[in-house]
TrEMBL record:
This is DOMON domain-containing protein. InterPro entries: AIR12_DOMON (IPR045265), DOMON_domain (IPR005018). The lineage of its organism: Eukaryota, Viridiplantae, Streptophyta, Embryophyta, Tracheophyta. The chain crosses the membrane at residues 6-26. Residues 163-177 have a biased composition (Polar residues). PANTHER family: CYTOCHROME B561 AND DOMON DOMAIN-CONTAINING PROTEIN, OS08G0335600 PROTEIN. It comes from Rehmannia glutinosa (Chinese foxglove). Residues 163-188 are annotated as: Disordered. The keyword Signal applies.
Length: 188
């Protein structure tokens, strides 16, 4: 009896460990000490996580958007200040250049077939950078002032290919069409 119990116990532990290791969460990411993020949410689609730190005195939010991705792919995160979903989003995109370095820049999603080229956004964004580590791409940026308040509609996306340094169209499978939501940067 006891040995059956122990075998079961070990099996259960192995199952939980494999579940934990296959689904990354907010707490799995340890940032370097100069990156301070007091809040985080595990986003419900595309293996993505949004870390942030809201700075009330500046009404700016420092963000780190991270998502599981292959080296050839791209990730994007944005705020849609005028509606909901993809079109109208003021986004940040990141991917690996042909030369192997990560690049990240702001881009405005003006249609369902956007150029995905660098563009000015309808709000300020600064200190944009990107990393690729442990099968995850990360975009860092400082967004704001958030002149319309701390509650925003946001959207996130990923695609599996980049051609001539232009992110290519993403899949239209369900998670890629549902990856949007509302967030309050002032919440804990
Ligand atoms: C944000 O999305 C909600 C639906 O979740 C919508 O009612 C609201 O109008 C959107 N906000 C803006 C600024 O369009
Ligand atoms: C890599 O390519 C990007 C985009 O063309 C360029 O901005 C960057 O300077 C290049 N980096 C190196 C190390 O060549
Ligand atoms: C943003 O970048 C500027 C210029 O490089 C730098 O002085 C500032 O410390 C950065 N801000 C943060 C919060 O990292
Ligand atoms: C605030 O609203 C204006 C007008 O809709 C929009 O252009 C701007 O991008 C919004 N700013 C933010 C930070 O959402």
């Amino acid at each position: 009896m006891a040995s059956v119990f122990i075998v079961n116990l070990i099996f259960n532990i192995l199952v939980s460990v494999s579940v934990i290791s296959s689904a990354l969460t907010c707490s799995d990411k340890i940032f370097s000490p100069d990156r301070l993020f007091s809040s985080c949410t595990d986003l419900p689609y595309l293996e993505a996580h949004l870390h942030w730190n809201y700075i009330p005195s500046l009404r700016k939010v420092s963000i780190a958007y991270r998502a599981t991705q292959i080296p050839e792919g791209w990730i994007a995160w944005g705020i849609n200040p005028t509606g909901i979903g993809m079109v109208g989003s003021q986004a940040l995109v990141a991917f690996r250049n042909a030369n192997g370095t990560m690049t990240a820049y702001p881009t405005s999603i003006t249609s369902y077939n956007p150029a995905m080229l660098p563009a000015l956004l309808s709000f300020q964004v600064s200190n944009i950078s990107a990393e690729y580590n442990n099968n995850e791409m990360i975009i860092y940026a400082i967004v704001g002032p958030l002149e319309n308040g701390t509650i925003v509609n946001h959207t996130w996306q990923s695609g599996s290919s980049v051609s001539s340094n232009i992110p290519q169209i993403h899949s239209t499978s369900s998670p890629h069409l549902q990856s949007m939501g509302k967030i309050d940067f002032q919440s804990a």
